[in-house]
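Duplicate of #3305? Posting structure anyway:
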């Protein structure tokens, strides 16, 4: 009886280890995030996940296509656009939601500064703030933040943590509009996804258990980041995602989540977002709704 119990315990430990560390199938899982808040939630992933940081989603997709990367966190619209361009990927979880604000000193300005013409701030400006002419002349959020602080721009749509940084450094700058509230009023949906965890389809087919292990590791990482922002901020800086002093104050306002896209309610939230983009800025998702094959 003792031998049977001992064998059972050993097998149980082995099974848990395979699930928890996933890399028994594949070795290290190569996962990419972007600089900025998109990368915050993954800083406490388990050691079998090798995290690399990139400045733009364009660089990430080229490495997904080439097979250099297995998984990545990308803006939500990019996941649809990649899939519509026949890149073989699957979306497995929402890991970040809306965290945008319109900030400035003059809400009656004619133009609104937007950090880039292809990201979520630009899409939300087109959807929700049509009364302003868009100004894309400053594409880097950090640079635009400095221009707001110096008074060289009077109105902008910005993500966290730049909202917190700007309002802290220039008390004349205020949050003039909550983008998430405007979204809710327009669509009836309480939130919209900003960051999606995707996986290369071939990798998913071969290593479903590993993908599940990464998802569970990601869920725990999100929980740890939210429960200990100071420790998370140190890791965020260590991994080259953002300076710790900027990250620590912003983490509670960055809408970090883990929502499994196997759940119909989560897919519905994502579909509402894609349907809205399709009506107003169709190029953002590749001109059509993604097929259900985008999901697991």
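Output from current build:
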């Amino acid at each position: 009886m003792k031998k049977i119990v001992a064998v059972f315990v050993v097998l149980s430990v082995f099974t848990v280890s395979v699930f928890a560390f996933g890399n028994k199938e594949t070795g290290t899982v190569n996962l990419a995030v972007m600089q900025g808040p998109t990368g915050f939630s993954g800083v406490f992933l388990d050691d079998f996940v090798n995290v690399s940081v990139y400045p733009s989603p364009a660089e990430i997709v080229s490495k997904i296509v080439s097979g250099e990367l297995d998984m990545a966190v990308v803006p939500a619209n990019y996941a649809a656009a990649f899939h519509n361009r026949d890149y073989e990927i699957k979306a497995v979880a929402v890991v970040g939601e809306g965290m945008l604000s319109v900030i400035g000193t003059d809400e009656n300005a004619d133009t609104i500064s937007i950090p880039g013409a292809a990201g979520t701030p630009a899409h939300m400006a087109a959807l929700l703030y049509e009364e302003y002419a868009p100004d894309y002349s400053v594409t880097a959020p950090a640079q635009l933040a400095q221009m707001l602080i110096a008074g060289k721009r009077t109105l902008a749509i910005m993500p966290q943590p730049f909202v917190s940084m700007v309002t802290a450094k220039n008390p004349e700058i205020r949050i003039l509009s909550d983008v998430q509230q405007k979204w809710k009023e327009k669509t009836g949906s309480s939130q919209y996804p900003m960051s999606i965890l995707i996986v290369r389809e071939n990798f998913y087919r071969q290593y479903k258990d590993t993908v599940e292990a990464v998802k569970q590791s990601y869920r725990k990482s999100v929980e740890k980041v939210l429960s200990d922002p100071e420790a998370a901020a140190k890791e965020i800086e260590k991994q080259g995602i953002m300076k710790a002093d900027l990250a620590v104050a912003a983490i509670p306002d960055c809408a970090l989540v883990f929502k499994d896209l196997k759940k119909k309610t989560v897919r519905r939230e994502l579909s509402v977002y894609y349907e809205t983009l399709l009506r107003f800025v169709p190029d953002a998702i590749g001109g059509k709704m993604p097929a259900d094959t985008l999901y697991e």
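Confirmed duplicate; merging threads. The chain has two domains: 2-97+191-294, 100-187. The longest strand covers residues 89-97.
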